[in-house]
Amino acid sequence: xxxxxxxxxxxxxxxxxxxxxxxxxxxxxxxxxxxxxxxxxxxxxxxxxxxxxxxxxxxxxxxxxxxxxxxxxxxxxxxxxxxxxxxxxxxxxxxxxxxxxxxxxxxxxxxxxxxxxxxxxxxxxxxxxxxxxxxxxxxxxxxxxxxxxxxxxxxxxxxxxxxxxxxxxxxxxxxxxxxxxxxxxxxxxxxxxxxxxxxxxxxxxxxxxxxxxxxxxxxxx
Length: 221
Prior knowledge:
By secondary structure, the protein is an all-alpha fold. It has one domain (3-219). The chain contains nine helices and two strands, in the order H-H-H-H-H-H-H-E-E-H-H. Strands 1-2 form a two-stranded antiparallel ribbon. The chain is globular. The two termini are 24 Å apart. The relative contact order is 0.11. This is Very-long-chain (3R)-3-hydroxyacyl-CoA dehydratase. GO terms for molecular function: very-long-chain (3R)-3-hydroxyacyl-CoA dehydratase activity. One of its GO terms (cellular component) is endoplasmic reticulum membrane.
């Protein structure tokens, strides 16, 4: 009961954070139109970073056994966001004003509002079939779109990493070792898309497990 209550509070905190971000984005867009897109990161970036840092706890939840989700898919999804948000976007102010950041935040928060709503109700043993269907179906088209947005954000950031030398390391003589960070990002891109294929397979298997005919009948009853 204690662990279930803890997970409920965790899901509630994440739901509140992502709902605030999503609502803020919608209100700003309806008020200021396209002008609001370039200022998205400066308006909601702090809360977004807090929510993503908090999501690292989900890996711990799986490791200690209080969350029965599969470790590798969740680990890949969380690390993808951490890398793109903190390493790529947060470190380059020029990238923060790009429209792709707004698109990426919209996709992340749309998915998370649905997911944490489903999780909160599931902790209490409440399953609404439309919400269950939405939770396990919406991620299948939106997750690949978010990966494309992540890849585009990385490509957009490359010229700035090349110009400013951010995170690039060159050790002085007598060492002949250096790290050119744009190359690291370019090597990460195929890893990102390979991980996407693996995660999509996992999303389909989860959908089948929760929305199979037998499971739907059981939840209805």
